[in-house]
Structures are given as structure tokens and as C-alpha cells.
Design goal:
25% of the residues are buried. Strand 1 (48-51) and strand 2 form a beta hairpin. The chain has helices spanning 3-15, 18-24, 29-43, 59-84, 99-104, 106-116, 129-137, 189-202, 216-224, 272-283, 286-289; strands at residues 48-51, 54-57, 91-98, 120-127, 143-147, 155-168, 181-185, 208-213, 230-233, 244-247, 257-264. By secondary structure, it is α/β, with parallel strands linked by helices.
């Protein structure tokens, strides 16, 4: 069993499909099937069978899958420790980031870091912030960029705070919002709670949702076209002259804001590449990066 075999077992267990596993590992299906047969022959047992619900693992197969997670993690630790012995930081920095952060900030962030540390490569995983928190917690990534406030047992650094704005094509009267069509977008649950709290403080009527979209940048474009108003974060409104904005304020006078954090574990700072990135982020002025 080599690293490739352990990765095949792990990926097949997660994908539950020969086709999707072959695509994920850039293998042909015959080559993947042949490798699975080799593994089964090596251990003298059936690992998995195909069914109506996809690939199903036998008890022996599930045992090997658990072993694959352990073996791949150990091999990753070996590689990182060896790379950490080099004088200059080298290796692969594993980063998890929310989709929004990845689109608007991460590329420029990594470009600047790469100038100072050309020997470091990156593996980036994107998703919802709650998913990124889990990736950091399980040590699947070294660093996680999270939008919103989430409980976390490790370490975290506040990067910046954004305000939220009522955004529309034409100026709106505050009292008219319940009667105007609103464009909603799929957002982090923590953000939706803040918006709902603000709405319930100010209105007794429910909002009129005229349109629902899956992305915040799509939502912004709908607002630009005059299809409704929306509650948009400060970052996406930068240099946008076609939208009228009004800051969202709680009755207490406090603005509605959302925080962006960097999550990590203290023990990962023992790796030079993680320490270098941490110090780079400490020096970064995010206002100059995007705002």
C-alpha cells in the first residue's frame, strides 16, 4: 500500500462513486478498478460493492478507510516536519477560506505573500464559513479565513470589520422598506441572524422578498438594474457608483457589522511556513488590500 492507494480509499468513501473518484484523482475508471482489485487481493477481502445508492463499503473496507485517514495524516505530518527543517520556509500551506473572501481578497493576498516566500505553495479549499471552521478544527487546513462570529477552541485573529448597507438603485425612504421588493441572497447563517434582528427591531411587517439569488455579487447586479433593494456588505460596494446606500443601524445606535477572522491552532505555529504567513497577515493592512 502506497500513498496513492490510501488516497483512493479515502476519496472513494467520500464520493461513493467510481466515476467521480476517477475524475477527482485524474485516473481512468479501468485503472481505478484495477487498483481497487489489487488492494482487495492484498488484504484478501472485499472492500466495497456497487449498489443502487452508489459504492457501499464492507466492514473490512470501512476499517481500511479509517486507516487511510490516519496514514494520510501521518504522511502529511512527516512531509511538513521534513520541510520545516529547511532554513527557509518551504512546502504547501493549506488554507481554507469562505467563498466571498476567496473571490475578493485571497488572490491578492497570496500574490503579495508569494513575492516574499517563493518556496511556499498553496492548497486552497473554499466553502461556507461554518465549513471552514470545521476544516481548521480537524487540522485539514493550517489557516482558515472566516466571515462572521463562530465559536472556536483554537486561536483567532480579527482581520477587519465591515458595515452593512441598505442598497438600492434609487434613494429609498426608510419607512417604505416593508412595501418594496427585496432581493435576497444566500448568506452565512450568522449574517442572516444579524439582519433578521435588525429588521425585527425596526419593522412589525415581514419583508417582501421579490427575488432570491445564490450569490451576493448577483444580488448586487440585480440592485443595479433596479429590481429591488438589498442588504449588502461594505466590501462589495467599493467603487460602486450606481447604488444608493444607507448604513444599517440598530436602535441602540450601534451599526450592523460583520467581522472577518483568521482561525488557526497554536501548535501549527511550529511550522515555519505557517509562522511566516501569520506574521505576514499581522503586517497586512486590509483597508489598502480592498477597501
Amino acid at each position: 500500500m502506497d500513498e496513492r492507494d490510501w488516497l483512493i480509499l479515502k476519496t472513494l468513501f467520500e464520493k461513493k462513486s467510481i466515476t467521480k473518484t476517477a475524475e477527482a484523482l485524474f485516473m481512468s475508471q479501468p485503472a481505478l478498478s484495477s487498483r481497487l482489485q489489487h488492494i482487495e487481493s492484498r488484504f484478501g477481502t472485499v472492500i466495497a460493492v456497487r449498489g443502487k445508492k452508489g459504492v457501499q463499503f464492507t466492514p473490512e473496507g470501512e476499517y481500511l478507510v479509517r486507516a487511510s485517514y490516519e496514514m494520510l495524516q501521518k504522511m502529511r505530518i512527516f512531509e511538513e516536519n521534513i520541510q520545516n527543517m529547511h532554513e527557509q520556509p518551504t512546502g504547501i500551506l493549506r488554507i481554507g477560506a469562505s467563498t466571498f473572501f476567496t473571490k475578493y481578497l485571497l488572490p491578492e493576498l497570496l500574490r503579495r505573500f508569494k513575492v516574499d516566500y517563493p518556496g511556499i505553495e498553496f492548497k486552497v479549499t473554499t466553502g461556507w464559513s461554518r465549513e471552514i471552521v470545521n476544516l481548521v478544527y480537524n487540522n485539514d487546513v493550517h489557516i482558515g479565513f472566516v466571515r462572521g462570529d463562530y465559536s472556536f477552541s483554537g486561536e483567532k485573529m480579527l482581520l477587519f470589520t465591515e458595515k452593512m448597507y441598505i442598497s438600492s438603485k434609487e434613494p429609498l425612504r426608510f419607512i417604505d422598506l416593508p412595501y418594496r421588493p427585496r432581493v435576497d441572497y444566500r448568506s452565512e447563517y450568522s449574517v442572516q441572524l444579524l439582519v433578521d434582528k435588525w429588521w425585527n427591531e425596526n419593522y412589525s411587517l415581514p419583508p417582501q422578498i421579490g427575488m432570491e439569488v445564490d450569490r451576493v455579487d448577483t444580488c448586487k447586479e440585480m440592485v443595479v438594474k433596479g429590481l429591488g433593494y438589498a442588504f449588502l456588505p461594505e466590501m462589495i460596494l467599493r467603487n460602486c457608483k450606481d447604488i444608493c446606500t444607507h448604513e444599517m443601524i440598530y436602535r441602540s445606535g450601534k451599526p450592523l457589522t460583520r467581522n472577518t477572522w483568521m482561525f488557526y491552532h497554536k501548535d501549527t505555529m511550529e511550522l515555519k511556513l505557517v509562522q511566516a504567513f501569520y506574521e505576514f497577515i499581522q503586517r497586512m493592512n486590509f483597508n489598502t488590500l480592498y477597501f
